Every structure is written in structure tokens, then in C-alpha cells.
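Quick one:
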Amino acid sequence: MKARHLLTTIGMAALMLSSGAAYAQSKMTIGFSQVGSESGWRAAETKVSKIEADKRGVDLKISDAQQKQENQIRAVRSFIAQGVDGIFIAPVVSTGWDAVLKEAKDAKIPVVLLDRSIDTKDESLYLTAVTSDTVYEGKVAGEWLAKETGGKCNVVELQGTVGSSPAINRKKGFDQVMAANPGMKIIRTQSGDFTRTKGKEVMESFIKAEGGGKNICAVYAHNDDMAIGAIQAIKEAGLKPGKDIKVVSIDAVPDIFKAMADGEANVTVELTPNMAGPALDALMAFKKDGTVPKKWIQTESKVYTPETAKAEYDRRKDLY
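Output:
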């Protein structure tokens, strides 16, 4: 009996080991070259990506590029060498990707772009891009401001990282509204690199250059973190953000909702941090049976004003 029990135990252990090995072999591994953690939104995207990967039993390996393209390219090559099942890239800038993407293609590793697009003549180098319509984001931000000011406003602009697709497109959309409203003009524009610290620094220089801020009707920031920095600069200059200088931005992170609830910001356009969910679904379907997704999977963008700020802050605060 003891011998039989021992054999049964050994057999069950072997079966468990065998099942575990089969699971380990079947579990998908994806490398994610993330831009960095320059903003609250970026940190949320990373957090949500991990959650979405865990839901699907995917091993997500994240590499923080610290906002440097050379680090991203190095990470992608490392993922290729590891033989991962797929690669996600949130490209820090839009150019200079063809060579490394060709290496991934030659290795038969599909690549998905997250929240940012790239400039390439060969779209076969990536499977799909999961992004919002960043031109639209800039446009609706500008349209809100045009309606709020009656089409008359001197605007200072805090651009995102130079060469990044969100910075290029959010400016493009906003500029379309400027062109349609002769009474509105951008009197100063400079990159704040999507960071709160740089946003504050640049806004301070704008205020000094424009009569202590008296010539500024509004600040348009390409993301909320720069807007929060601008709010700090406005307050330190003895002005009231949201009133003396209107604050318009993009992302919809909790801190901007808190600022709106406090009367210090006026509008934000949402960029969902859940890019990984749709990307994972597309990649898993492709790996399973060759289903080719649309080249652009568009996420939704919404406009938020102070009326719903407190409720939105409470809903989002634990995600960021």
C-alpha cells in the first residue's frame, strides 16, 4: 500500500510539473519599451498595462527608456535577442525607427505601437498602432477656448517633447482653430517636455515676458502635468489660474480634476491610459490564428470641464 501510495504521489507530482511546464511554454511574453515616467499619465499607462497583461496571463517585460530613443532601440534589440512573442513600443519621437523595426520583422516578432505613432514609408514594419486621435485632441481643446472667449484670446503654448507625435499633432489641431479665429493667436510657444517641472519653468518665462502675465488670456498645455506646473507659476506670480489666465490641457489625470474642482483649471481632453488592453487583444488574436487587425485602433477622447471634476477625481485617483 505504501509503495502504491508513493507511486501515486510521484505520478501526481510529475503530472503537475508537466502541466506547469506546458503552461510556461504556452504563456506569451511581450517586451514593452516605455518612454519613461515623465508624467502622471505615463505612470498610469504603465500600471494599467501590467494589470491588462495579468488579466490575460501575459508576461509583460517593461523597459523604461527615460525619454531617450537610443534606450528604446537598445531595449527593442534586447527583446529580439530574447525571442519574445511580441513587442510594444511607445515611441519617444516619431522618426528613426525603420532599422530596428526591420530587425524585429526579420525575426518574425510583431510590433505594436502604443499611444504614439511613427513616420515611416513601410507600414508593414508594425502590426498596428493603438492611439487616440491626437490632432482631434488639440482641435477640441482649441474649440472650447474659442467658444469660451468669443474667439478673442492671446494664448501661450506649452508643447510636448520636440519631435513626438502627440506634440506635433496636438499643435496641429489647435492651430487649425487659431487659423479659423483671427482674434486668437499664440503669442509664445515652447516645449515643456511633457513634465511638470519644465512646464512651470517655461510658464514663468512666459509670464515675465508678457507684462507679468497681463497680456496672457490662456495657457494651452499639451498635457496635464505641464498645466499643473503652469498653474503653480501663475499662482506664484500673484495671478489666479482658471480666471486671470485660463488653463486648457490634455490627458485627464487626477491632479487636473482636483485643479478644476478648486477653480484653477478650465478644461482637459481625456487620453485613456488603457492602450495595452486593445493592443494585447489584437496581438493575441494575430498570434492565435493570423487575424490581422486594423492598422489604427483608435481610442476614445472626451472633453471634461469643472462640472464633473470632483466625481472624476474620485473615480480615477487610485489608478494614478
